[in-house]
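Worked Example 4.2. Read the sequence first, then its structure tokens.
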Amino acid sequence: MILNKLIGMFSNDLSIDLGTANTLVIAKGQGIVINEPSVVAVKTEKYGVQKVLAVGREAKEMVGKTPGNIKAIRPMKDGVIADFDMTEQMIRKFIEKAHGRSSFISPRIIICVPYGLTQVERKAVREAAISAGAREVFLIEEPMAAAIGSGVNIREPQGNLVLDIGGGTTEIGVVSLGGLVLSKSIRIAGDSLDKAIVDFVKRKYNLLIGDRSAEEIKIEIATALPLEKELKKTVTGRDQIEGLLSSIELTSEDTREAIKEPLKEISEALKEVLEKMPPDLAGDIVNNGIILTGGGALIRGLDKYLSDSVKIPVYVAEEPLLAVALGTGKALEEIDLLQELFEDE
């Protein structure tokens, strides 16, 4: 224990919110030092050798625009590692960028993972981080991190329900007395909304658009409920009948129609958790309401849509996009005091 503390004095420990869409890295005592897309650009050279060209924001700029021998890869899919080697490379680059040369000792790292990960998937996350240069790896589950990052006192004997809609997964967790009383993870989240928009535009307007365009549409005009003043966006893609480039005007009402099924599935998952709620905690949830975090929390009217669905107040966290990362960062600051929260080897 004393040795670990001594080592810690010379090591810049890190926390990583390893998301399907974005990866955020917090350095102990420094706050967020990296907030970049979870994308790796790879060039295939002679004999099939793959060379990493870029990671993060620079790599995302290449999505959908690369020549045949260059690929922009998203190594995380639905909150889990889809490509182990590329995930390791991505973590390594981010550690190097965050850790720099300021320390000669490898960092301890806390990584936030979805609740629903299997033991095999958890092991893969740990091994990727160890291979990338971590000295020790701890895992914290997303609902717990989201609760901490939203300002919930997780040690109180009071129930708080957090709904985190990320890129690959939606995490629902009821936190009380420093633990997760109930949790559910579904692989319907931001990416599913993007896909629903792509499919809707193709079906209604015969226009083929890419994932990046769909994400921009989601951010700029998507809504869960009708708006008083409709939003509009001009969208360009390829007409699938004529094969020529074409533009259409998409409305917020179009997006509401497009994403209604994924939102319905998220609402149903929330209802399932509420139906299993222990009676003593049910009153707490009714009084405290539901905390909404993650990028999905920014969908217009989603808080009211969910509140109308479950008949409980829903509040968007102060910094929904950063809640999970900030919670993981707070856990990092108290890493020695919060050992019971973490899974380590």
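Now turn to a second chain, presented in exactly the same format:
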Amino acid sequence: MSEKKSAPTPVAINLHSKSRLLAIEFSDGASFRLPCEYLRVFAKAKEVRTLERPVTGKASVNITAIEPQGQYALRLTFDDGHDTSIYSWDTLYDLGANQERNWQAYLERLQEMGYDPEQRGDEGPKKIRLLYFTYLVKQLQKESEEVELPASVSDVTGLIDWLRRRNPDQAHLYRDGSFQVTVNKQFTEPFTRIDNGDEVALIPTSPNAPVRK
């Protein structure tokens, strides 16, 4: 008789407040990045589950506290005051594994209600300050600039892609691995969120510019 396989449990839980993401790694090797908005929308508290309409207006919500509940769950406190939802390991794993399907169903529900999914919160054009260093200063002939980003640019990856498209002749200057990025003087992940008013620095890892291919 085979032994029952134990359910995956978290081995690492990290809140990325700037990006409003809860990153979770499980014992079976699965890892998920769960947006705070997603966790708030799919909160398990009775007052949320029994609502006739889905939760809206939480695009900017963030998690302010994470409290372990024994060895089986987390209690999350959100900055909109919601603090009654407890997320078991099974719930968090299920939310991660089915994130795309759940979110698409949520957006479709909003459309059925006549609620524009693209107007969920504070998304819109962003004005940021870009700082350049070493060879970027020489190649771009500037140390900094103020730019307005399209609404589609939401994170560091999107910003770099936009910079490459903005001037294809200089795209090689932004080659992967040739520089590091800070946002508001903090080193970033590719998924680090870009917000209006941020200061973003591009810091080359070598004094020599990448050669254009």
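Notes for the reader: The chain has a mean pLDDT of 90. The CA atoms of residues 21 and 35 lie 4 Å apart.
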